[in-house]
Amino acid sequence: xxxxxxxxxxxxxxxxxxxxxxxxxxxxxxxxxxxxxxxxxxxxxxxxxxxxxxxxxxxxxxxxxxxxxxxxxxxxxxxxxxxxxxxxxxxxxxxxxxxxxxxxxxxxxxx
Amino acid sequence: xxxxxxxxxxxxxxxxxxxxxxxxxxxxxxxxxxxxxxxxxxxxxxxxxxxxxxxxxxxxxxxxxxxxxxxxxxxxxxxxxxxxxxxxxxxxxxxxxxxxxxxxxxxxxxxxxxxxx
Lengths: 111, 117
Fold this sequence. Notes:
Largest sheet of chain A: 6 strands, mixed
Order of helices and strands of chain B: EEEEEEEEEEE
Shape of chain B: globular
Oligomer: heterodimer
Number of strands of chain B: 11
Helix content of chain B: under 10%
Strand content of chain A: 35-45%
Strand content of chain B: over 45%
């Protein structure tokens, strides 16, 4: 079981908005550590989608946005497209474990 | 453009040692950043293994620390991972990453390593 908890799956229709949650604790997100988000398309390596809670690296569409509050963080995707179908992972640092940690991942299906 | 490429054996016998190398192009390791490894077991999530700076400073996942050695070769612009005493649980795709202050901003394509006799 991952230290950062994500829903196993979410779905949405093309054009809709979906959110993916990432819930941590007082030793990671609640301690002020930033959260990063990654997108992993089928058969591909993950790629950085959101860094430092809400920053989009160059080349990431502004349809993707991130936020963090307390022990939780969220990734929002607006204007859902078929090629957004992928696994999404949150990642942060845990001071109790003294290690970088990932969420268990969320599979996004565009129905 | 920064590019990372993992290389090494795709099959390792149980109890033996897994060794992978990550060649970096488009950026000099000596210029900074930590360079790390993340693995993904088949059908599973991501697990951070550890990272190394060109100065030799390392950081490890405590659950793997006793079996992991990280090294850097600035002359070849590459980093290496050694994982000892492997078991079937170490079967995974191993990714090389650049650690941009806690966010992994560049990834290699990954190398599948299977532990089997």
